[in-house]
Amino acid sequence: MRIDILTLFPGMFDGVLGSSILKRAIDKGFLEVFTHDIRDYSNDRHRRVDDYPFGGGAGMVMMVEPIARCIEHLKGQRNYDAIIMTAPDGEAFNQHKANQLSMFNNIMILCGHYKGIDERVREMFITEEVSIGDYVLSGGELAAMVMTDAIARIIPGVISDGASALSDSFQDNLLSAPVYTRPSDYNGHKVPEVLLSGNDRLISEWRYEQQLSRTRERRPDLLENE
Ligand code: 6GU
């Protein structure tokens, strides 16, 4: 899978793409991520990519031309299954959306900034607008990284333990059960006895009960959506 990210701050991605699971997904060839600096597509001699809003008001607006040039350049090289824009007023990003996007071969993510992006970019190019939660970020880069991570980790083969990604919280609309490792007794805080029992059936039942009770307690909304 290939992800092209259009951004005003390509440097923000280096640490995230160079660490942990994302790094491994890229090193193993399961994922390619390319960042594109929108400024490189400005024809302005000051490399400007934003301007004042028509009709007045506070904040700057990202201009259509540099973004259009960048998108057209990429579209000329391959077909894209989705051209996504990050936006606080977009559709909610969740596990279902991550699963969907992980099936695609080529996607673009355009990172929004300032007051917003000229509406004509949406009309002409964008197939979906996505938000990662009900709060406002300074820009779409962190949202693009969140999406890239969530997508990459479920590409088959990226996580060596094939079962691991599928048993994540949310994959079945349930939160995960608590986990423990050695020591079995830490200053009197003991690991639940059942996990030391060696009885696989009892352990599975216990974990499922934990998933249900945790979800009921913390995220009852997940159970209502069944
Ligand atoms: Cl996608 N962008 C921005 N700027 N803020 C957000 C967001 C996106 N998702 C949640 N907050």
Helix and strand arrangement:
Blueprint: E1 2-7, H1 14-17, H2 20-27, E2 32-37, E3 50-51, E4 61-62, H3 64-75, E5 82-92, H4 95-102, E6 106-110, E7 116-117, H5 119-125, E8 128-131, H6 141-152, H7 162-166, E9 185-186, E10 189-190, H8 200-218, H9 220-224
Helix pairs in contact: 3-5, 4-6
The structure holds 6-chloroguanine.
**What is the CATH superfamily label of the largest domain?**
SPOUT methyltransferase, trefoil knot domain
- Helical amount: 25-40%
The number of distinct structural domains comes to 2
Any idea what the CATH architecture of the largest domain is? 3-Layer(aba) Sandwich
Q: Could you name the CATH class of the largest domain?
A: Alpha Beta
What are the bound molecules? 6-chloroguanine
The strand count comes to 10
Question: What structural category characterises the helix and strand content?
Answer: alpha/beta
Contiguous low-pLDDT stretches (5 residues minimum) are none
- What is the N-to-C order of secondary-structure elements (H for helix, E for strand)? EHHEEEHEHEEHEHHEEHH
